[in-house]
């Protein structure tokens, strides 16, 4: 594992811009397991390795630095790069990731946290597939961050001609994607080979596990699943069990099957992309005359499928020619909306004022929502930080334990640790003198009350405490001030 | 301890009740897109603490995942529509500005304000569901002694339905467009505002603000992750806008 890490770092340095669609797809399929059946069966088998998976593919979806700098990228994608560690692709399977987290939270996994965060850090630098780099505009950002769209996943590996044996699906959607995808450079092929070698070491065990293989179909199609799709997936998966790239083949094929199956491909539109769409439509003579195929051709966006265009065109037509219907039913209450302006006129307030008023309330709501959101983000960050601090302190305390040892110490330390937890994680216990310095943090977050989980007796023990908690508290305090 | 638990349950019910109220006030097609808080709560209750990987737990996580998928799908779909509508309105404004048809201006203005409202409601939708998720995860952790909350919330923060930056940007664009279309005039009286509330979008926004304020008023279970009470500049306006009980919209 360590070797793998080192190689990955080196690799990152060399080809930071290479793509890892392969890894991403594979891991996703392995990790994301939405079914309840998976939990029970895979738990005993994958205690240690599962946790790594969610982190590995995450970075694959992270935009490169240059892409982020592009104005057309929607700003909220930047955190993907900023964060290290637990970055997730937006879509492929929030289900899967949650499930993995459950597994990892239940089982002891501390020692893996570090290694996996290293892994993900290196992966964070990994760019999107080279196919991405040729994309213009926001579409790149959209699709790269919306992996729920099976097509997005599909065409990634498609471009890895050297590695994958992309099976012939004969599906229009897939064909279209393949024709649009960029041919990988030799370098990229090498990267992917190297990548799969590294992955193989870690995942051989997993790949040989039937349970995981069986879970994959669920992974791919968390939404509606056709049995046909699943069987395709399964059979191919079993074939490719020993080989990493083989896995991807299976996944790819099944995904492309899914594209034409029940699932509508999902992607996230942006204003820029929409503008491109509108231009294409106008070139073709308007929304009535334009066909999805024509628009798709004109737009020349890699990875955009006819399904996307079709549904978008439909929405566009609705918005243009039936503005009342497209107003989200607010105008459907025709009597009411028609009455309001006249009602307002009767009582002396004109439409403008009425609109202004409504706008004002809505504006306030929005402002409050933004504030709330920022608070929530900060709270989570803070929580993470404190958790980290606690873990560090735990470690320090454990190290100290291993030095001089008396019989009493273990029991003392455990209570001390609990107290440290109490102090570090619940700094709002105001009666504790050591915690008083932490109130600055709490004030940032908001007024707090006593945490129900903290037993009052803990506070009494504080004075009788040994070195470790006090130093832990002090350490935490110092660090907080530095933060 | 028992009392605390009871109070927590009360608080939990309150969120459930508030969520329900918010849902009732919502536009009809939104109503089944909200978090199934009650169902998740039921599942949490079924979970037995000593056996972490029981079937009930798996069910809980499964439901959680599908809920998140539901949010993402709905959110992205709405977002797409809003982008289209916003651009359309901008186009219409450009066309109308040339002809200066006053009536059209009014219509466009109304549509724009409603679009603005719906977008804000989408942000609110995101926020409510996030809050619900956070609460239910907290319950889960409490019940099982597990550490599900933190990692799941981390993932949630990156989900499409929570990344509302684009929508917020569109909202602000709407606001600036409105400002340019209808330059500042005298502030409207508050009584007239009451009539405005008949409009569904508007009413939903008011309800959302009220709910938010109540949710944040005070909690018996303050923790690290609780939000402070809402501080609103114009609390009186909001108060006067509150309707006694919503008239069901069929």
UniProtKB/TrEMBL annotation, chain A:
Q: Does the keyword Zinc-finger apply?
A: no
Taxonomically, the superkingdom here is Eukaryota
Q: Could you tell me where the Basic and acidic residues compositional bias lies?
A: 450-462
Transcription among the record's keywords? yes
Q: Name one Pfam family in it.
A: Myb_CC_LHEQLE
Q: Name one GO molecular function term.
A: DNA-binding transcription factor activity
List the InterPro entries hit by this protein, alphabetically: Homeodomain-like_sf, Myb_CC_LHEQLE, Myb_dom, Myb_dom_plants, PHR1-like, SANT/Myb
The biased composition feature labelled Polar residues covers: 433-446
Tell me the segments the record calls region Disordered: 425-483
Keywords attached to this entry: DNA-binding, Nucleus, Transcription, Transcription regulation
- The record places domain HTH myb-type at 261-321
Q: What is this protein called?
A: Myb-like DNA-binding domain containing protein
From TrEMBL, chain B:
- Origin, by domain of life? Eukaryota
- InterPro entries on file: SPX_dom, SPX_prot
The record ties this protein, via CDD domains, to:
SPX_AtSPX1_like
* SPX domain: residues covered: 13-154
GO biological process: what's one of them? Answer: cellular response to phosphate starvation
| Membrane-crossing residue ranges in chain numbering | none
Q: Which Pfam families match?
A: SPX
Q: What is this protein called?
A: SPX domain-containing protein
Q: Which organism is it from?
A: Musa troglodytarum
Q: What is the organism lineage in this UniProt record? A: Eukaryota, Viridiplantae, Streptophyta, Embryophyta, Tracheophyta
């Amino acid at each position: 594992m360590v070797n793998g890490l080192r190689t990955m770092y080196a690799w990152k340095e060399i080809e930071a811009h290479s793509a890892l669609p392969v890894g991403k797809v594979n891991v996703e399929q392995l990790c994301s397991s939405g079914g309840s059946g998976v939990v029970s069966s895979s738990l005993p088998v994958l205690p240690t390795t599962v946790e790594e998976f969610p982190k590995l593919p995450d970075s694959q979806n992270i935009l490169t630095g240059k892409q982020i700098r592009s104005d057309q990228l929607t700003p909220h994608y930047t955190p993907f790069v900023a964060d290290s560690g637990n970055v997730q692709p937006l879509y492929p399977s929030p289900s899967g990731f949650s499930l993995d987290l459950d597994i990892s939270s239940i089982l002891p996994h501390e020692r893996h946290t570090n290694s996996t965060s290293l892994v993900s850090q290196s992966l964070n630098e990994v760019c999107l597939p080279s196919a991405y780099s040729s994309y213009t505009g926001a579409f790149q950002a959209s699709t790269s961050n919306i992996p729920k769209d099976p097509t997005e996943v599909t065409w990634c590996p498609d471009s890895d001609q050297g590695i994958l044996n992309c099976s012939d699906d004969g599906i229009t959607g897939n064909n279209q994607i393949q024709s649009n995808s960029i041919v990988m450079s030799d370098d990229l092929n090498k990267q992917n080979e190297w990548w799969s070698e590294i992955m193989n070491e870690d995942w051989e065990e997993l790949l040989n596990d039937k349970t995981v293989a069986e879970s994959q179909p669920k992974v791919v199609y968390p939404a509606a699943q056709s049995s046909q799709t699943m069987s395709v997936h399964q059979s191919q998966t079993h074939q490719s069990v020993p080989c990493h790239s083989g896995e991807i083949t299976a996944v790819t094929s099944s995904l492309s099957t899914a594209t034409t199956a029940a699932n509508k491909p999902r992607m996230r539109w942006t204003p820029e992309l929409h503008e491109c769409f509108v231009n294409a439509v106008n070139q073709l003579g308007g929304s009535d005359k334009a066909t999805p195929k024509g628009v798709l051709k004109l737009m020349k966006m890699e990875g955009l499928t006819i399904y996307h265009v079709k549904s978008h065109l439909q929405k566009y037509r609705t918005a243009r020619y039936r503005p009342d219907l497209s107003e989200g039913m607010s105008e459907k209450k025709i009597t009411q909306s028609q009455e309001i302006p006249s009602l307002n006129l009767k009582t002396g307030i004109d439409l403008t004022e009425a609109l202004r008023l409504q706008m004002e309330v809505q504006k306030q709501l929005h402002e409050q929502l933004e504030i709330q959101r920022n608070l929530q983000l900060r709270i989570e960050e803070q929580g993470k930080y404190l958790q980290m601090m606690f873990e560090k302190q735990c470690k320090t305390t454990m190290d100290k334990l291993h030095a001089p040892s008396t019989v009493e110490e273990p029991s003392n330390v455990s209570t001390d640790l609990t107290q440290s937890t109490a102090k570090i994680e619940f700094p709002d216990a105001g009666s504790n003198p050591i915690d008083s310095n932490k109130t600055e943090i709490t004030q940032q977050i908001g007024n707090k009350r006593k945490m129900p989980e903290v037993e009052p007796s803990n506070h009494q023990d504080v004075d009788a405490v040994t070195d470790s908690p006090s130093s832990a508290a002090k350490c935490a305090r110092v660090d907080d001030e530095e933060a | 301890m028992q009392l605390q638990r009871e109070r927590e349950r009360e608080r939990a019910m309150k969120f459930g009740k508030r969520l329900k109220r918010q849902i009732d006030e919502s536009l009809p097609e939104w109503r089944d897109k909200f978090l199934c808080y009650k169902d998740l709560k039921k599942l949490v209750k079924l979970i037995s603490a000593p056996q972490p990987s029981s079937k009930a737990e798996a069910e809980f996580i499964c439901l959680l995942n599908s809920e998140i998928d539901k949010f993402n799908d709905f959110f992205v779909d709405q977002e797409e529509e809003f982008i289209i509508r916003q651009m359309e309105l901008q186009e219409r404004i450009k066309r109308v500005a040339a002809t200066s048809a006053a009536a059209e201006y009014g219509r466009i203005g109304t549509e724009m304000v409603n679009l603005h409202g719906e977008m804000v409601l989408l942000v609110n939708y995101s926020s409510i569901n996030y809050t619900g998720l956070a609460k239910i995860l907290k319950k889960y952790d409490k019940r099982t002694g597990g550490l599900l909350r933190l990692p799941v919330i981390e993932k949630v923060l990156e989900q499409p339905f929570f990344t509302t930056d684009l929508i917020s940007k569109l909202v602000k664009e709407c606001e600036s467009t409105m400002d340019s279309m209808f330059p500042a005039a005298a502030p409207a009286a508050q009584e007239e505002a009451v009539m405005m509330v008949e409009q569904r979008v508007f009413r939903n926004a008011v309800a959302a603000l009220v709910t938010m304020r109540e949710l944040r008023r005070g909690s018996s279970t303050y923790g690290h992750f609780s939000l402070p009470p809402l501080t609103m500049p114009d609390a009186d306006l909001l108060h006067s806008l509150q309707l006694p009980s919503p008239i069901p919209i069929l």
